[in-house]
Amino acid sequence: MAKEKRNIKILRYNPKTDKKPHWKSYNLELDSELTILDVLNEIHWKIDGSLAYRRSCRSAICGSCAMKINGQNLLACETPMHKFKGTIKIEPLPGFPILKDLVVDMDGFFKKIERVKPYLILDKPTPIKEFIQTPEEFDNIREAATCILCGACTSSCPSLWANEDYLGPAALLKSYRFIFDTRDDGSVDRIDIVNDKNGIWRCHTIFNCMEACPKNIKITEYLSKLKVKVLENTI
Ligand code: FES
After folding, report:
1. Which of 38, 39, 58 to mutate to test the pocket of ligand 1 (most atoms within 8 A of CB)?
2. Which pLDDT value is given to residue 234?
3. Model pTM?
4. Atom of ligand 1 at shortest distance to CA of 75?
5. Structural domains in the chain plus CATH codes
6. What is the average pLDDT across 204-226?
7. Can you spell out the DSSP letters for the chain?
8. 75 lines ligand 1 (CB under 6 A)
9. Is the shortest distance between the CB of 55 and ligand 1 below 6 Å?
């Protein structure tokens, strides 16, 4: 693999020793085929073991390595270094409190996911074997169900920057996934939750969430369908 010299700038922050986040620069000779996660590993393993960041699957599945790279919310493990020219600037996901370096506090994010009851609610007895849907029924939720809860969409949403109590695109997408699931009986409850003053009506169709989603989920489109569903069921 060809080597190239790259300047990597990382926004560092240790709440125990730093008053505020600051940029730290690393000059490295790196294989051009590395991903951004590989670059962080190089720095962590060979230069500065105190660098904090999250990662697990390395396969764009677990959602833990979302961060802001040269101004875009991306998954570090699926972003090749050669996507960028010159200096690469790496920051934690915006809009979330920083715990340390690139690690942000996702508690509020997951509490919002919990609020929309992200599981099937059944009035009928649970089937003993498979709980079957037709392929056509599943098509309604297929894409929404691929969300990996990385937080990239929610972190990029200006409506959330303006009001941290807003449920945000990931939680609303999760509610869509269950409200449009033909097996679910919990829609009345969920529609009530998303029809709240901090719910679906704070989505102003800005499309940042769709641009940020590493799974290319058409989030804004689904949230628009959710608005129609809420209206149909409340007026
Ligand atoms: Fe799991 Fe990147 S490490 S999505």
Report:
1. 58
2. 86
3. 0.94
4. 2
5. 3-104 (3.10.20.30), 107-234 (1.10.1060.10)
6. 97
7. --EEEEEEEEEE--TTT-SS-EEEEEEEEEETT-BHHHHHHHHHHHT-TT-----S-SSSSS-TTEEEETTEEEEGGG-BGGGS-S-EEEEPPTTS-EEETTEE--HHHHHHHHHT--S---SSPPPSS-----HHHHHTTTTGGG----SHHHHT-HHHHH-TTS-HHHHHHHHHHHHT-TT---HHHHHHHHTSTTSGGG-----HHHHH-TT---HHHHHHHHHHHHHHHH-
8. yes
9. yes
